[in-house]
Design a protein that fits this description.
Elements lengths: L4 H25 L22 H13 L3 H17 L2 H6 L21 H4 L29
Helix pairs in contact: 1-2
């Protein structure tokens, strides 16, 4: 069977954009409950797994938007550490995703991985940080069906 990677990646990109847009619409429908906002990025310190297709789509997006060199440099520095660190320790070290910019904004928000698209909280966003001085457990908005 002959196939071209660009054809497959195109459909993955469309699906990622669809999930992100559906998530944003869902977020708007419960806006009085969802407390996530631009610049709030404690959840972006989690060690997450993404598919190779998601990685390729994000790479293409970062290259087109001239953000790839910076992200590549940050990711290269974190590569060995990410392979040797369990997810809980990673989160406690508060290491941000290499795609985050200096303002705490996602450089691939429109086509972010599904795991990132479905993560919103309804509690105080400060509770998402392992270093928050506030006590309590954060409450997730249920968007896992996306």
């Amino acid at each position: 069977m002959d196939f071209h990677l660009s054809q497959i990646i195109g459909s993955v990109k469309i699906k990622l954009m669809d999930v992100a847009q559906t998530s944003e619409r869902r977020k708007l429908s419960v806006i009085n409950k969802v407390s996530c906002k631009a610049g709030c990025h404690s959840c972006c310190s989690r060690l997450v797994s993404i598919t190779m297709a998601e990685a390729i789509v994000i790479h293409e997006h970062l290259v087109q938007n001239k953000k790839w060199p910076s992200v590549r440099d940050k990711a290269t520095k974190l590569l060995i550490l990410s392979k040797e660190t369990d997810p809980v320790s990673w989160f406690k070290m508060n290491i941000s995703c290499p795609v985050l910019d200096e303002n705490g904004l996602c450089g691939s928000y429109q086509i972010r991985p599904v795991v990132c698209s479905i993560h919103f909280v309804t509690s105080d966003p400060d509770l998402c940080s392992p270093w928050s001085s506030k006590a309590g457990k954060y409450e997730l908005a249920n968007m896992t069906d996306l």
